[in-house]
Automatic annotation (TrEMBL):
TRNA binds at K221. This is Epoxyqueuosine reductase. Pathway: tRNA modification; tRNA-queuosine biosynthesis. GO terms for cellular component: cytoplasm. It catalyses: epoxyqueuosine(34) in tRNA + AH2 = queuosine(34) in tRNA + A + H2O. Belongs to the QueG family. Keywords: 4Fe-4S, Cobalamin, Cobalt, Cytoplasm, Iron, Iron-sulfur, Metal-binding, Oxidoreductase, Queuosine biosynthesis, tRNA processing. Its EC number is 1.17.99.6.
């Protein structure tokens, strides 16, 4: 490996941009000291609800060297998903991130291309790609590498482009130049806290996952608790309220990833159409979509909960 850290870092960032990533930041692969007590407290207070998987691999969540042997760098990447079109105003609502093809597939391919590029251009580099499917604290790493700050709604925020993007990582055994964290620009704003339909943001920077509409409509396998009736603001899959009201999202620009474009039928559907949706239509509209996670039965359950 004759290339310098500086040169390699520039190469990687340029290739990430070419692959369509919004931004790329790099931090040293080491134990996330500040996150450990926070994660422990969050789990202790049962804010993960039925998401048992959040309790697993506590040490791996905080230490990338336990995930990738001899890892030196965490490359964090953002991919914009902000759509140019919106759903019919008389519709049950779907989180914007789920409009098009499941992001796991789209991002995994880009990450593989980036890793191949690193290996071709720099040499014998080992690493792994992560898209929120392994115990990696995406937002913490993105913030550490200067891509934004974690807002009061616990999403990553940037002054230039808001928060409508996916976060992914490559953890590799190569030393690179590391970026510095940015500062918090939430100030005294409480728009997200005030707007949350289920009061899931229990205090600034703390979200009780077990009260979040996204949790109820995607993660929860049982019936949605009746005490939340009338509080879902017509969200049938996910929820964007805390992001929609955030002043920084005035700067969101539409993505240019064709795979994130929605099935046109999805945008025109009304509440009545959703209530009458058949399994065949579900399969057609959500062929490669993240919505498949909740399954046809889950979506029907959510719609029924909103309708009753």
């Amino acid at each position: 490996m004759i290339n310098s850290k500086n040169h390699n870092t520039s190469l990687i960032k340029a290739e990430a941009k070419r692959l369509g990533f919004l931004s790329c930041g790099i931090s040293k692969a080491q134990f996330l000291e500040a996150e450990a007590p926070r994660l422990e407290k969050w789990l202790k207070n049962n804010m993960h609800g039925e998401m048992q998987y959040m309790e697993n691999h506590f040490d791996k969540r905080l230490d990338p060297t336990k995930l990738v042997e001899d890892s030196k760098s965490v490359i964090s990447l953002l991919l914009n998903y902000y759509p140019s079109e919106v759903q019919n105003s008389e519709s049950y609502k779907l989180s914007k991130y789920a409009f098009g093809t499941d992001y796991h597939f789209v991002i995994k391919d880009k990450l593989k291309s980036l890793l191949n590029f690193i290996q071709d251009e720099i040499g014998d580099v080992s690493g792994r790609a992560f898209v929120d499917s392994a115990p990696v604290l995406d937002k913490a790493w993105a913030a550490k590498s200067g891509l934004g700050w974690i807002g009061k709604h616990s999403n990553l925020l940037t002054q230039q482009v808001g928060s409508f993007y996916f976060i992914a990582e490559l953890i590799i055994d190569l030393d690179l130049e590391y970026d510095l964290p940015t500062t918090d620009h939430c100030g005294t704003c409480t728009a997200c806290i005030d707007a949350c339909p289920t009061q899931a943001i229990t205090e600034p920077y703390v979200v009780d996952g077990s009260k979040c509409i996204s949790y109820f409509t995607i993660e929860l396998k049982e019936n949605i608790p009746t005490e939340f009736k009338g509080q879902f603001d017509d969200w049938m899959f996910g929820c964007d309220v805390c992001q929609d009201v955030c002043p920084w999202n005035r700067f969101s620009k539409s993505h240019n990833e064709p795979l994130f474009n929605p099935n046109p039928e999805l945008l025109s559907m009304t509440k009545k159409d959703w209530e009458e949706i058949t399994e065949d239509v579900f399969k057609k509209i959500f062929k490669d979509s993240a919505v498949k996670r909740t399954k046809f039965s889950g979506l029907k359950r959510n719609i029924q909960f909103l309708k009753d």
